[in-house]
Amino acid sequence: MLSAAKQMLRNWREQAALSPAAKAELARDKQGLPASDPGIEPAVRAAVQWLKRAQDESATHDGGVARDYSLNEGWGPSYPETTGYIIPTMIDYGQRYGDQDAIERARRMLDWLVSIQFPEGGFMGGKVNATLRVPVTFNTGQILIGLAAGASTFGDAYLQPMHKAAVWLRDSLDADGCWRKHATPFAKAGDKTYETHVSWGLFEAARVAPGNGYAEAAMKQVRWALTQQQANGWLANCCLTNPDTPLTHTLGYALRGFMEAHRFSGDADVLARAIKTADGLLSALRPDGFLPGMLKPDWSAAVSWSCLTGEVQIAHSWLMLFELTGERKYLEAAQKANRYVRRTMRLDGPADQLGAVKGSFPVDGAYGRWQYLNWAPKFMIDANLLELDISRRG
Fold it and tell me: Which Gene3D superfamilies does this chain map to (predicted)?
C-alpha cells in the first residue's frame, strides 16, 4: 500500500509539472491514431526537415543533432552516438532528392564528431555535455557507421578518424567475442547482445578499407551474440536495463546487426538465425501495425505502449528479409509497422513537432517519455525509403 501511495504521489507531481503542450499531445494521443496516412514521401520529407531543425536548435550549437525535443523542457544538447548514424541517412536522402543542404549538414556533423574523438579512437557515451566523459563501445560503433559513410562520400578527411575508431573497437574485443572493456555507464552493467549494431559499424569500415581485420572482429562478435539466442528466436541480454522485458529498440538493434552480418558475409547460418528472431517479433505485431514497446521471452506484450523507434528498426529488417526470401509476410508486416508510425506523426502544427517522431505512442509511454527523439525519424526515414524502393521495383 505504501508503494502504491508513493507511485500515486509521483504521478500527481508529474502531471502537475506537465507543460500545456505535453498535456495537449497526451490528450491527442489518447484519442487514438488518425485514420489518414500522410504517405511515405511527405512523411520522409518532413522528418528530414525536422532533423535539420534539430541540428540548428541543439542546445549546445556545435554542429551535432539535438538528442531530443522535450514537450516539457525544449531542445536538448547534441548527442554524438545518434548523430553518427544520422549521417548516412542525410547523405542518402541528399543524393536521392538532390538536397545538397542535407549532404553539407552531414559533413558538419562529421566535422563535429571528429573534433570530440578521444585520441585512442573511441567516443564518449551520453549527451555531449555529460560530466562523465569516457570512451564507450556502443557509441563508438554507431559513430563509426557515420565515419565510414563520410570516408566513402567525402574522402580522406574522415579516413583516419574512421580507422582510429575501428582499430579501437577491433582491439578491445574480448577473446570470446563480447565487448566488455568499455561499457556504457548509462545502462545496467552486463553483456549486451544488441552490440551487433556495433559490429555493423565495423562491417562498414571494412567496406571502405578491407584487409584490416575489422570484419573478422565483427563476425566474431555476431557469433558470440548468437549464443544468446533461444530456441524461439528470443535474445538474452538484449536491453539497456531490463533483459527480461527488453525494448523493441534494442531487439531491433540486434536483429539489424544480424542482417548486416549476413549482407557482408553471405553466411547462411546467420541468416537462418536472424529469421528466427524476425519471426518471433512478427508474432507480436498486431493487425493495425502496433508492436508493443517491450516484450517477454515468449514474444508477448510486456507493456501497452509502442516504442516507435523499435517499430521502424524492425520494419527495416523485415524489408531486408523480404528482399532476400521473397516471403510476403515480411513485406506486409513492415508496411503495417511503417504506416503505424507515419500515422503518429504531425505534418502540420508547431514547428518543433512537425515531422518529428515520439519516443513512445502514446507520448507518456516509458521510452523517451514526453520527447521526440532524433534517432526515431532517422530509422523511420531509412525504413520508409526502403519500402518505397521495393514498391517501385514492383
Answer: 1.50.10.20
